[in-house]
Amino acid sequence: MIAVITGDIINSQHADTEVWITKLKNLLENWGSAPQTWEIYRGDEFQFKCNIDDVFWRFLAIKSLIKSQENLDVRMAIGIGQENFSSEKITESNGSAYVNSGRLLNDLKSDGHTVSIKTSNDSVDRDLNILLKWASKDFDNWTMATSEIIHEMIMKQDTTQEDLAKKFAISQSSISQRLKRANYELIVETNQYFRKKISEL
C-alpha cells in the first residue's frame, strides 16, 4: 500500500505564484524526484506519493509551508491504497490510492473542508476524518508566524526551541507560546495515532 496526496492551493490567484511554487517544489524534492514521485500541474494543483507511515507528517509539512505565505491555504485529499501501475509521471500512474485521492479532492472542493482521507476501510475513514475535521479547526487558523514554527519543527525533528529562537530572532518563550497555541504536543500524538490506525488496514 502507498499514500497519495492530491491537493490544490486556495487563493492562489491572489498570491505571487513564483514564491509559493518555488517553496513547494523545494519541499517536495526532499521526498523524491519529479515527475515520478510528485508533480505540480494545472497551475495550482499537485500530487505526490509517499509511504503510508509518513503521510500525516507530509500533509502537515505542506500545510504549514503554504500557510506561512500570506493569504494562502491548501486543500488536500489523502488516498491510501494500491499502486497497480507506476508510470514515469505520477499523474499517469494508477491504482486505488490514486483513485481514492483524486475523487476525494473533488468532494472536498464542494464540502468546504481542507483535508480528508479515503482508504479501503469505511470504519478507519470515519475515525480519521472526524479527527481531521477537529484538527483542521486548528490547522486552518494557524497564523503565518505559527505556521513557520510548525514547519521547522516538522522538517527538523531534532531542532530545539533555542535553535528556533535564534533563527527567527525572537525569544525562546515566544517560541514556546507559539508551539502551545498550535497544540504541537497534541499534533505529535495525532501523528502517532494516525500511523497506528493506518497500520491496521
Automatic annotation (TrEMBL):
Entry superkingdom: Bacteria
Protein name: SatD family protein
